């Protein structure tokens, strides 16, 4: 039988989700837009999730269960396996402990076709384990349907909308955005790191004033946990974003991203537990990347103040922080 091309490929990484997977899958199968394939990616879960994925695949021909080898912490390997296997013209991702509204896929798909957007996002809502809805603060939500260009997206990135922009879920991607783009392995907040690569390929980004994705909050979720790996991953994401801005010639945006990264490293250095060789090596690598890209910014822009800041950064984060504070006081 010839393989068909579904409108949407739905990628669900599955790990330690015995208690939530059925609710997640049932919410996906209840979609009013039925032309999709569902890829359940077993991320070598140590519980019954592999069997549950296979059982779901046996129940509905739209579902495929994949069992790739795990490639490090975080869901990057599972997401990449889903991207490799996806046949749809559009991609959406759902976490295995979350649920979606019945009209989510239809809302995203028809918005994309009407506007010509390559990426469509909607609002999400948090849900407690007892089912209590926890809507995001109003300022973090899209109040009206909005069309953004690449530059307008990054202008809005500095607003409370950042909470909707980051992540992999509650959005629909044109599959072509992932041509040659995959999530880095072994990195948490890999979505934050890859975001510039995807936005660079978008002609139009559309934001919908519609809430159709429900994020379950629990103690085990990465989004509810602050760890050393998370902090460093966010910093690496800021540095990568700065490199992307430099490639566009957006020097002010690059400086802002690098300053965010430097200040984040400075404020959180005590939390990295640098007594551990692995943590110390990772911290040194990230700081080295920060110095390298800041030096590139100073060379491109040629401003003396930037060259001095780059030199201060090479001397150390406290020196950089003190120099910035001195400049702020002079201009205050």
Automatic annotation (TrEMBL):
Q: Which Pfam families does the entry mention?
A: Glycos_transf_2
Glycosyltransferase 2-like domain ranges (all copies): 9-140
Q: SUPFAM superfamilies of this UniProt entry?
A: Nucleotide-diphospho-sugar transferases
Top enzyme class: transferase
| The EC number(s) this enzyme carries | 2.4.-.-
Q: Name the domain of life.
A: Bacteria
An example molecular function term from Gene Ontology annotations: glycosyltransferase activity
Entry keywords, A to Z: Glycosyltransferase, Transferase
- Name under which the protein is recorded: Glycosyltransferase
